[in-house]
Amino acid sequence: MFLEKLCNSIGPSGYEDQIRNVIKDELSTFNDNILVDRMGNIIVNKDKQDNSSPKIMVISHMDEAGLIITAYNKDGTLKFSTLGDIDKNSLPCKTVLIGNKKIPGVIGIKPIHVQSKKERNEDISYESMCIDIGAFSEDECRKVVSLGDFVIFNSEFSSFGDNLLKGKALDNRIGCSVLLELLKEDLNCNLYGVFNVQGNIDQRGIYAAAYNVDPDLVIILDTINSIDYMEIPSYFRTSKLREGPVIPFKGGQCIFDRDIVESIRNKADDIGIPYQKIGNTQGEGELKAAYLTTSNCKTASILLPCRYMNSNISVCSLADYDNTLILLKSYLEDYSIK
Amino acid sequence: MKDLDFFRTICEAHAPSGREDWLYSIIEDNFKEFGETTITKLNNMYIHKRGTTSSKLMIMSHADEVFLMVKEISKDGFIKFEGFGIDAKSLVSQEVIIHGRENISGIVALKYNYNDKEKNKVSMENLYIETGLSRERLKDIVGLGDYITLDRKMVRLLNNNVSCKSIDNRASIFAMYICAEELKNVNSDLGVYFVCSCQEEVGHRGAKMVSYDIKPDIGIALDVTFDSGMLGDSNRENKLGKGPVICIGPNIHTKIRNRLIQTADKYNIPYQVEVEPGNTGTDAWDIQTSVGGIATILISIPIRYMHTSVEVVNLEDIRNTGRLLARFIQELKESELEGLFCF
Questions:
Q1: What CATH number does the domain located at A66-153 have?
Q2: ipTM above 0.90, yes or no
Q3: Contact residues on chain B for A161, CB-CB shorter than 8 A
């Protein structure tokens, strides 16, 4: 499936070149109305109604969680920080690729045997990790890796367990994949598909894209952390894997249009697609940008449950993927008729 | 490179303490041309290359790797586990293989706590493994006490450094392989036993069993040691790429060790020295006191990030370890032994 190629492609926040080209190449096989704005967002228009009907913008960020090189250590290893919101507990002992040259490296930590008692009890910190590319000296390392080089996780996409998928960057390449499939359909509406940059750092790409498109309706297609596991009390379970997309009333600081949210939910009920109702998605504050910029238009979001979002390996459900696509397709067709 | 493929294969293979046999068909395939193979009841394996005399030299590398074990299957179908030699901090978001009725892949997840960030602390109690299977299916495949091992493909880094899981101690098995290759057309005085020992990671138990089986005149333990980099052991001087590390201390037979250093100097094989004032924490510790006392030395290969899925080793260090051993064995005459053993 094309999602595999999307997930295995490179594009941390602010460095979306490769993933942008992968998506553009795919789009160009069926659409020639592709624009890349000054921030790097891809904007595709598919108008079946000669610009007479409302503009619907479906937006999906294409960047992924990554790291960035910040300094050199004396022993030839590297210091780093995160690009986007990553739980640093998930960082030790992963394999990574650095920069456009894809220099392989690993994230090392001090062996348990030589940790002091204090170190054993401490949480992991950036000081207690390094990226090792096998360089023997700081000088050698400087020749191979530059400060500011981005780093992505080196995890392979594959199927997992019972009808699930695992891989890096499922947040939000799974949304991109749904949007790509949506754009391949001949939907009877004035559809703008946007693949935006910097989704993981406050959804900054949306500001530019929303201004450039000036839509009447925005639907944000993204993932939502699925914390449905391991003795978590039910009131903290934001979303459940395999139980359909989440259609919230509020996402972080963004209050969605109640009518639109309800009409999407009604559509799902009509065609028998499972979905999850959530009043508020806690901690998913990044959705605010769309609301702030496009306050003249109606906004809603459809979120795909994703476990271990923003780490080297995350998990999504194929059934959720299919259901999201069917629901969106059916809703958009309907929306323009009204 | 055929020999690097062998190294990659044994690193990526899974052999937790007690199930070293999972590795042995690969080792047998690659070592059988060098001598006669024996596998003991408790999963020690040795390959015997005959010498021209009855004196015996034993090279021992433990075959087992650190591991996890299934402790409980939770109500919502996650696996709780026990760790053996692995730092909980190194496990979050790690991919693993669960060796149940069939091998299934899993991801280690950290229990999330919205209420109290303090409780997000990484500890074995807060870690679970997800398999993506329902509790019912999981229970069909996985039982309590099943082994879990880390899942990692080998990565090549700069300067002939490679990273993988289980480089502790497959690097030493690879060094034995290099040694055996070098000795292929050599008739040494001493017979050589290449030993893959069992259960080192849970208390070097195999070392004793094999020592009493073979009763060697000289025992050489091969293992890995810490490098002295930023996240290594600053109380040592070991560096990756500077050659095998020869240990000095009460666990080590002084004269044999000096004889080894002579060989290294003669053939210009790089080596480093480390000091262990007490327990070396290796098979050498148990070989030394076995069978009424065995002249024992320890050669270590420096690695980074020991007991994690991204251990880093230098291939030249492994090759030089194999070469040094081969030259030492090739040169050592039976007639020297009495002098070496005499205090």
A1: 2.40.30.40
A2: yes
A3: 104, 130-133
